[in-house]
Write a structure and sequence with these properties.
This protein is about 5% helix and about 40% strand. It is mainly beta and about 130 residues long.
């Protein structure tokens, strides 16, 4: 026999925000590099849609898959800015095809930050009552 699906429970889980930190609508110019679905190296200049301490979302022309690893570098006008010249590794958490490309969300895989922003403290769960 087939398995019964609890659609209400699935709907609640799907609507929960499972991000580790709150996203802030900040636009940064970034360079995204990695390997496309064909295994070819790509580099694409784009900008963030939003960022958090742990990740970001952005649009791309290159199709990727959930789980792919990309290097993201902040592009700044100041060539002497060490954070702007350093790439960090991010893993694609989700990707959605849009009319003119792809929108992706990525989670950073390294502890450093490339964003020039202070983020709100993460909410810690309180004791159960």
């Amino acid at each position: 026999m087939g398995t019964l699906t609890d659609w209400e429970k699935l709907s609640q889980e799907a609507s929960q925000d499972r991000r580790r930190g709150k996203r802030v609508a900040l636009t940064y110019s970034i360079e995204v590099a990695g390997f496309d679905r064909s295994g070819r190296l790509f580099t694409e200049c784009t900008s963030t849609w939003d960022v958090s301490e742990d990740g970001c979302s952005f649009r791309l022309k290159t199709p990727l898959q959930r789980g792919d690893v990309v290097a993201i570098k902040l592009v700044t006008r100041k060539r002497t800015d060490p954070a702007g010249n350093r790439s960090l590794l991010f893993q694609i958490s989700w990707i959605v095809q849009e009319r003119d490309g792809w929108k992706a969300g990525a989670m950073k895989l390294q502890p450093e930050s490339i964003w020039h922003a202070a983020f709100p403290q993460k909410e810690r769960p309180g004791p159960s009552a």
